[in-house]
Amino acid sequence: MLTGKKILIGITGSIAAYKIPLLVRLLKKQGAEVQVVMTDAAKDFVTPLTLATLSGLPVLSKGFDTETGKWNSHVELGLWADLFVIAPASANTLAKMATGIADNYLLTVCLSAKCPIMFAPAMDLDMYKHPATQENICTLISRGCIFIAPASGELASGLCGEGRMEEPQEIFNKIKDFFQKKQRFAGKKVVVTAGPTHEAIDPVRFIGNHSSGLMGIEIARAFADQGADVTLVLGPSSIRAERNSIQVIPVTSAEEMFNATTATFKNADIAVLSAAVADFRPETVADHKIKKSPDNDAMTLRLVKTEDILKTLGQKKKENQMLVGFALETENGIENAKKKLHSKNIDMIVLNTMNEAGVGFKTKTNKVNIITKDDKILEYGLKPKNEVAQDILDVIYQSLTRQ
Ligand code: CTP
After folding, report:
1. I want to staple 148 with a disulfide (CB 3.0 to 4.6 A). Which of 120, 314, 321, 399 is the partner?
2. What is the whole-number distance in angstroms between the Cα of residue 276 and the centre of ligand 1?
3. Average confidence (pLDDT) over 224-237
4. 209 given a catalytic annotation
5. Cis ω for the linkage preceding 203 (within 30 of 0)
6. Ligand 1 contact, 233 CB (< 6 A)
7. Distance in angstroms (rounded) separating the CA atoms of residues 280 and 147
8. Residue-wise pLDDT tens digits, 126-152
9. Is residue 246 lining ligand 1, measured as CB closer than 6 Å?
10. Are strands 322-328 and 270-273 parallel, antiparallel or unpaired?
11. How far apart are CA 194 and CA 219, in angstroms?
12. Whole-prediction pTM value?
């Protein structure tokens, strides 16, 4: 299954390092080529000899090996690998990865790596919970690194809690999963809408909403990571797509989003419309800043409907195109989402749960139900938005392969 896959394993200084020989063995048994890179601190926990024997290759720790006189190019290694798995990833290494510090060989390979990076943290409970560590993890995830969350359990300190590196078998499963999913949308053209829209009132004011764009951006990133050719039509958002392969079309208003999305949809195989598009815009936009009048304590703004992009695409949709919408409901969620699914002629709708902690516009997590064309409801728990994106892609993929 992993025949010919080139996997770099980076080991840092944590007691969990003693479990990595098992991971190397599992990968080798499946036909992968494994090259181990370790920090000096890691050698206190597991010997290079064990790892070299199991991987069949000398372990690398330095750019220049004084014993053999050999130069180990971090650049070449970074280009060689299909995947770089850093396990265990200590708090120190995560911090350095997040800030781009390269003061050991493993970190120089990290900075040179062209392949995706997976990391499995291992540390004590309080180090893991520290805001600095959490921020570093978020930074790495937002750059596209794949996070293998630590499990809860007994820690080396004797404390019990989160911070225990995931078991080698689980890390192995994640690696297998990665290679299986890597190219599953190859050749597919995908358009994703994300973010809010801003509807101008005058040159300095607009009507907008609180959407950050993160959910749609995670969907675009997940498609790009799985081989799709992605166009992201993005309303005003401070979040960057962080993938060079994603073509971003920045838009401001619902009208601009409508024009960009309908044009791109013509050649698309899949469209996922997650943007929070304004349903109404001011009928006229003032040429100059609207001034307060001393005589009026109130003002009236006449709003007119914007075009419904999802509905328009539902009308234009061809047999071989898949259209996915989102629904934001504050009451009768399932019922209203099903109505949208059928009235807008879409293939699947993602219903955002509202009124619960950890969900909504400004959060990094979300909780959704996915309703398919045949009214099947799939329920999911509260998860980081990148994992929600994976769930959505899984359902899209299943439905494409069933066709
Ligand atoms: N949508 C769209 N164009 C609009 C409004 C909404 O493409 N002008 C899309 C959204 O991107 C989302 C779906 O329609 O995929 C549903 O959006 P939502 O705001 O939940 O519902 P609306 O259709 O706008 O209906 P209502 O506001 O009445 O619930």
Report:
1. 120
2. 7
3. 96
4. yes
5. no
6. no
7. 40
8. 999 999 999 999 899 878 899 999 988
9. no
10. parallel
11. 9
12. 0.80
